[in-house]
Write a structure and sequence with these properties.
heterodimer, A: 551 residues, alpha/beta, Glutaconate Coenzyme A-transferase, 2 domains, eight-stranded mixed beta sheet, 22 strands, B: 318 residues, Malonyl-Coenzyme A Acyl Carrier Protein, domain 2, Alpha-Beta Plaits, four-stranded parallel beta sheet, four-stranded antiparallel beta sheet, 10 strands
């Protein structure tokens, strides 16, 4: 054994010591674990220090809005050069931090609601880009090389010991806290209220350093509510094809849906069209999904065995509580969500992901970027890919095997559903993705592709389904996509003889190949045609936010 | 939730529009002030005949915008941010307290004159609907030669763009875009190639003129025409006011930046509703009102309600 002479000189508690120093510097300002509401900025200016890596809770639903507003008001002469880590850059003050010079670098997953300012500030040199991640990647890096020195998060309720109740909107809070708390980071939690007894403890107080009662409840967006009134006949036709030509054909039992109207149509067709095909109990039993209000009729009709949620949905709390056979509810009755675990489940554990996109090239690569904007990814690429390391088999996964090689594997189903033209008459199918221009304009390391073509197993349009998983040549892949690309330029590249051949060989299916009459695709098939009818289905338990009430 | 006051540019005027302003002390005082400054009645500038002149249009647009802004101010309604399209930017600058009305009126008159004199004949503008900027730019590059220069100018919506330059070149581009996917393309009734480099000498003169008047720090941020950024200093705003006339107005991006900064209530100062329509289309979940269309009282009512609902501390941090 080689013994280092200076071994005794090194301290192994520098992080802990530094944390204790900061905590002792605020002791006159705080009352135990509680930071007074009106002294939060002062406290932050001591507890956070220039150059710190700060993870700020903000995803597409729940926002630590009190803490983000307070941080943006800090004195940039005291707090500067912060490295922010945000799942989603959604609120104006997330970028005000950079405009004011408080923060300089960012790592994030999604910036849709601030995508123009984001692009501008990168161009102006006000933001130094780290990387753009998927949710799972970002959560993972919190434990590897983006370990936060400070976590700023939100909870519904806390007690005086710092125990937290986060309930249906638990989302990513436990993950962000864990990464900071166990590496001597400082955890500050904004709470809507401080009470004596919590409904249940979602996060233990020993992980928490400070709580502060926010002046207003944290921001929460009803992001997963789709009003059935806006579902069109074309979306219903697509939904019928998907149920018949994908879910039934491959016996899809576990899945995740995107948040578009086309997937809402599928949800509302299960109790009507799905029922008429005798599919109840055979498909769509297990879900990694937020509590979509449009799932209510399927749940009420007994289609759903289980549903694990990334987050909650405003107005669904009582309904979810009353259906505890389906949801993950605590001993107090209310739901517990978990964004990290549900994303991971959606990545590894389900048979199928289906979502929409704005652009797809002739090889099936898809992207939702717009020129001049920097929006990132969120969670779609986690769920919208085939995790190569998967081992467990299900009928749907095995059904994707196309060879009888001894080591042949199955595949997760990754389905893209689009109409051939977006609004404004823009073709969805294009020769080259705008993502490539965005890469060149912004200097990103890779083009911001949302779902890679080689992961996509099926593409669905109003024309039909392309079964890409069956195809091994790039040429045939282009043909199958062209066969369902309608009158876009890509669609015009294929002859009707060729289409007949593709349909005959089972690479493409049109509605008639699936025994679907286009004229049957009517709104009357929807189990609920309005938010009001969803409320009726729920026995009045669903309480839609005001903006969705028309009565 | 924040509110923005928007000030329209040329194209929103119609004959006698100053008579449509609400009848209140702030409006009549502003009109009188304009009369004094101009040395003649401002009503001489808004008749059908007078509006043939760019200078008259700009003077009457500025007067209308400032009068309406002052009417809100009198009711203690201030926006969180301001923005104006082209000459409307001067109204926005006055509303933000950056310039005084008297200076703005003088400079806007000069601006109109310079624009009229720069290219008296053979130049103008066109509008193209249904193409995106990168598509239009490519078609212009393929179509136009040096003899008859054409530039892409204002981006009012992602698929509503203008072009500026020499008329024969514009005609060629209009034909070309219609053969390449544009939904609609036509000549605008404008005789100046505004918002393109052909007017860079106008910008130079304006910058000198603007340096001769006093500029103050804005009371609320002003969104720039040229770069669609919020501007916080007198220097940046002066530069934007001068250079806007020879640069493309990035209106879609400018209003998107307002939206991303939390603006959910847009109120368009008179005349017209051009900017209201654009905001309605671009931001379906925001509220967009026009004083001309909805009336001053309704706009005031909504603005007051919004002020009450506003979170404390969501104003801009300086």
């Amino acid at each position: 054994m080689v013994k280092h002479m200076d071994r005794t000189k090194r301290s192994w508690t520098t992080r802990q010591d530094a944390k204790q120093k900061r905590k002792s510097d605020v002791r006159n300002l705080v009352d135990g674990m509680v930071i007074p509401t009106d002294r939060i900025i002062e406290a932050m200016e001591i507890l956070i220090q220039p150059g710190d890596r700060v993870v700020l809770e903000g995803n597409n639903q729940k926002q630590a809005s009190f803490l983000s507003e307070a941080l943006a008001r800090a004195n940039p002469n005291i707090l500067f050069d912060l490295h922010m880590i945000l799942s989603s850059i959604s609120r104006p003050e997330h970028l005000d931090l950079f405009e004011r010079g408080i923060a300089s670098k960012v790592d994030f997953a999604y910036a849709g609601p601030q995508s123009l300012r984001m692009a501008q500030m990168v161009e102006d040199g006000k933001v130094t880009m780290g990387e753009i991640h998927t949710y799972i990647e970002l959560y993972g890096r919190l434990f590897i090389d983006l370990i936060p020195s400070v976590a700023l998060v939100a909870a519904d309720k806390a007690d005086r010991f710092g125990n937290l109740y986060t309930g249906p909107n638990t989302e990513e809070t436990p993950t962000l806290i864990e990464a900071a708390a166990f590496r001597d980071g400082i955890v500050i939690v904004q709470v809507n209220e401080l009470i004596d007894e919590l409904p249940r403890v979602d996060i233990p107080g020993s992980w928490i350093d400070y709580v502060v009662v926010a002046d207003e409840p944290y921001e929460l967006e009803p992001l997963f509510t789709r009003d059935p009134r806006h579902i069109t006949d074309i979306q219903i036709l697509q939904a019928m094809m998907i149920i018949r030509g994908i879910y039934e054909k491959h016996e899809v039992q576990s899945l995740n849906h995107g948040i578009g109207y086309n997937t809402a149509a599928i949800e509302l067709l299960l109790p009507t069209y799905g029922e008429s095909l005798g599919l109840k109990g055979k498909i769509c039993k297990h879900w990694a999904l937020n509590p979509h209000p449009t799932m209510i009729p399927a749940i009420e009709s007994g289609w759903v065995d289980s549903m694990h949620c990334f987050g909650g949905e405003v107005g669904m709390e009582k309904y979810v509580e009353a259906r505890r056979d389906v949801f993950f509810n605590g001993s107090d009755g209310s739901m517990r969500s978990n964004r990290t675990l549900s994303q991971m489940a959606g990545q590894y554990a389900v048979d199928l992901f289906i979502g929409s996109t704005l652009q797809m090239d002739s090889e099936g690569n898809s992207s939702t970027v717009t020129r001049g904007r920097l929006a990132g990814y969120g969670g779609a690429p986690n769920m919208g890919h085939d995790p190569g390391g998967r081992r467990h088999s299900t009928p749907a996964w095995l059904n994707m095997m196309t060879s009888d090689e001894p080591l042949a594997r199955g595949k997760k189903l990754v389905v893209q559903v689009v109409e051939t033209f977006q609004s404004g008459n823009k073709p969805v199918f294009v020769e080259s993705l705008d993502a490539i221009d965005v890469k060149n304009d912004t200097g990103l390391a890779t083009a911001p592709v949302m779902i890679y073509g080689d992961d996509v197993t099926h593409v669905v349009t109003e024309e039909g389904i392309a079964y890409l998983y069956k195809i091994d040549s790039m040429e045939k892949r282009r043909e199958a996509i062209a066969a369902i690309a309608g009158v876009t330029e890509i669609g015009k590249t294929i002859t009707s003889d060729k289409i007949e051949e593709l349909r005959r060989d089972g690479f493409v299916a049109y509605p008639e190949d699936l025994d679907i009459r286009r004229s049957d695709a009517k709104r009357s098939l929807l189990a609920a045609k309005s938010v009001e009818e969803l409320v009726e289905w729920s026995d009045g338990l669903y309480e839609p936010p005001a903006k969705f009430r028309s009565w | 939730m924040k509110s923005a006051f928007l000030f329209p540019g040329q194209g929103s005027q119609r004959p006698e529009f100053l008579h449509e302003l609400s009848k209140c002390a702030a409006v009549s005082e502003t009109l009188e002030e304009a009369n004094d400054l101009l040395g003649e009645s401002v009503f001489n500038f808004h008749s059908k005949e007078a509006l043939a002149s760019t200078k008259a249009v700009q003077i009457s647009l500025l007067t209308a915008g400032v009068a309406a802004y002052r009417a809100f101010d009198l009711e203690r309604i201030q926006p969180d941010v301001v923005g104006g399209h082209s000459v409307g930017a001067f109204g926005a600058a006055v509303a933000a307290g950056v310039m005084e009305f008297k200076d703005a009126l003088k400079i806007v008159g000069k601006r109109g004159e310079l624009m009229e004199q720069a290219f008296p004949v053979g130049y103008g503008m066109g509008v193209v609907l249904g193409l995106e900027a990168h598509q239009l730019e490519l078609l212009i590059a393929q179509t136009v030669d040096k003899q008859y220069p054409v530039f892409m100018s204002n981006q009012n919506a992602p698929d509503q763009l203008t072009i500026s330059g020499a008329l024969p070149g514009i005609q060629k581009v209009l034909v070309e875009v219609q053969q390449n996917g544009a939904r609609c393309a036509s000549l605008l009734n404008v005789s100046t190639p505004s918002h393109c480099p052909l007017l860079s000498s106008v910008s130079d003169t304006l910058l000198k003129e603007l340096h001769a008047v006093s500029f103050n720090p804005p009371s609320v941020p002003y969104v720039g025409n040229r770069n669609a950024r919020l501007l916080f200093t007198p220097d940046e705003i002066r530069q934007d006011l001068a250079e806007s006339v020879s640069s493309a107005v990035q209106w879609h991006d400018a209003s998107s930046v307002l939206y991303e900064n939390g603006v959910r209530l847009f109120i368009e100062m008179p005349p017209g509703n051009v900017l209201t329509r654009l905001a309605d289309r671009a931001f379906p979940d925001a509220k967009a009102l026009s004083v001309t269309e909805n009336g001053f009282d309704d706009c005031l009512f909504v603005a007051e309600r919004q002020r009450l609902k506003k979170r404390k501390g969501t104003n801009y941090i300086w």
